[in-house]
Amino acid sequence: MTNGSTMSPGLTDFADRLRSAAAGLDLTVENRPELASSTFNGGSSKSTSLSPSDLPAECHAIRIDRFNIVLSVLPDIPTLEAVRETLRRCRNQCVVARSYLGTNETLDLQLLLLGPRASERQAAWRALALMVERDDRVARKLAWLRPEDEQQDDVSFSDFLKRTFLARPWVHDKGKFEDAALDELSDSGASTPGLPRTLADDWERIALDETKSPDDIVTALVRAWQRRGQA
To answer: What is the pLDDT of residues 142-151, one digit of tens each?
Structure first.
């Protein structure tokens, strides 16, 4: 486990980028080193600590707003065995972290994992990252797979942020979306009391479609509204 100045350059950069993104949103940030420790809250003996072999080799923890975040790294090689072992250790670390959190705080615990250089476009890594993110045990998990070219890190990290709690898709420059499709709803009887059950079902299906981009979702929602009541 590592903290502060002992972190690797990659994990340090990851943490700094998250801090910078939070600062840009005027969110408070603080270090939470106890969440990255080997000892459970209230313990000081061998029986209340985990061994290094059961915890990630590299780990850091911060709090942004109400979200407590454990940061760690994925292995260098995209093998199922290596990723599963990393995931096991990181889940253990999150169990330690949860011992320091209140009941409501545990609901917002996040595990953010840093992928190796050039993992972004590798099919093997993309599949393994998806497996990691589908594991909802102990904490929500997200992986940033980095590009091969360091010059592309800013763009890649920006795309990663769009999948995190730091995303703000509803914040725009004034007037940028004055003619947005959703505005049509205000002029098309959207205030009519009640919604047809079929429309509500359509909206739920559209909103949960992970293959659609945000713009595609907006367009589909508007079209579903326009079709309401039609046979």
So the answer is: 999 999 999 9
Q: Could you report the per-residue pLDDT of 102-151, keeping only the tens digit for each?
A: 999 999 999 999 999 999 999 999 999 999 999 999 999 999 999 999 99
Residues 15, 21, 22, 23: is their CA dihedral positive or negative? positive
- Is the Cβ–Cβ distance between 126 and 145 less than 8 Å? yes
69: amino acid identity, one letter: I
Return d(Cα 86, Cα 132) in angstroms, integer.
10
Between CA 105 and CA 110, with CA 106 as vertex, the angle to 5 degrees is 100
Write a three-state SS string for the chain. CCCHHHCCHHHHHHHHHHHHHHHHCCCCEEECHHHHCCECCCCCCHHHECCHHHCCCCEEEEEECCEEEEEEECCCCCCHHHHHHHHHHHHHHHHHHHCCCCHHHHCCCEEEEECCCCCCCCHHHHHHHHHHHHCCCCCEEEEECCCCCHHHHHHHHHHHHCCCCCCCCCCCCCCCCCCCHHHHHHHCCCCCCCCCHHHHHHHHHHHCCCCCCHHHHHHHHHHHHHCCCCC
